[in-house]
Write a structure and sequence with these properties.
single chain, Ferritin, globular
């Protein structure tokens, strides 16, 4: 059952052109994003060890994201692409996090819903990439990632509903979808996931 909401604005065709025009840079950024996604899931475990209902799923998600990093890294090795020298700041994520509530419970819900929105945008963009790739191996890889990210999008909403009522979660998720649209439209287009 799908629990997440679709993104409010579609990614621009110019974004896909930038990715396809510099796929090696996209791979480097993609690898960084998978590492960050794994770390984000584990940061929930570290910051909210009392939220025991969701810890097993958070660990599974962290492991899956780390496996995605490993798969992207193997792909990079095959293509002779090294990891980026350093992980750059993700302005997209930073701008979203700046809009979080500050109270512990409210921030917890916001962080879960931002994670859902990030995964949903990732799914939308991986689908675009998969559909545009002619290389069959790459097409299958990005199709698998698109399906996985879509699944993660609803997992984080489900986690939030363990602790907050449905109306509260969806009212706030709608708000986040609108904020995400503003942020994604304000970003410079480049060969990066965000």
């Amino acid at each position: 059952m799908k629990l997440n909401l679709d993104v409010a604005v579609a990614s621009k065709p110019e974004w896909l052109e930038a990715v396809l025009g510099d796929f090696n840079s996209f791979l480097q950024d993609h690898a960084d994003c998978e590492r960050k996604a794994s770390a984000m899931a584990m940061s929930f475990v570290a910051k909210y060890p009392d939220r025991v209902a969701i810890i097993p799923e958070l660990i599974e998600t962290a492991v899956e994201e780390l496996e995605h990093f490993q798969q992207v890294y193997q792909l990079m090795e095959q293509k002779g692409v090294q990891l980026a020298p350093s992980m750059g700041e993700d302005i997209y994520v930073k701008r979203l996090l700046k809009q979080c509530y500050s109270g512990r419970n409210e921030r917890f819900m916001d962080r879960l819903l931002i994670a859902s929105v990030l995964e949903t945008r990732g799914a939308e963009r991986f689908k675009m990439v998969a559909d545009a790739l002619e290389d069959e191996t790459l097409h299958k890889f990005y199709k698998m990632l698109w399906i996985s990210e879509a699944k993660h999008g609803h997992i984080f909403v489900k986690m939030a509903m363990n602790y907050f009522d449905k109306k509260t979660v969806y009212d706030r998720l709608h708000w986040w979808i609108d904020r995400e649209a503003e942020v994604i439209d304000s970003l410079e287009i480049k060969a990066a996931l965000h």
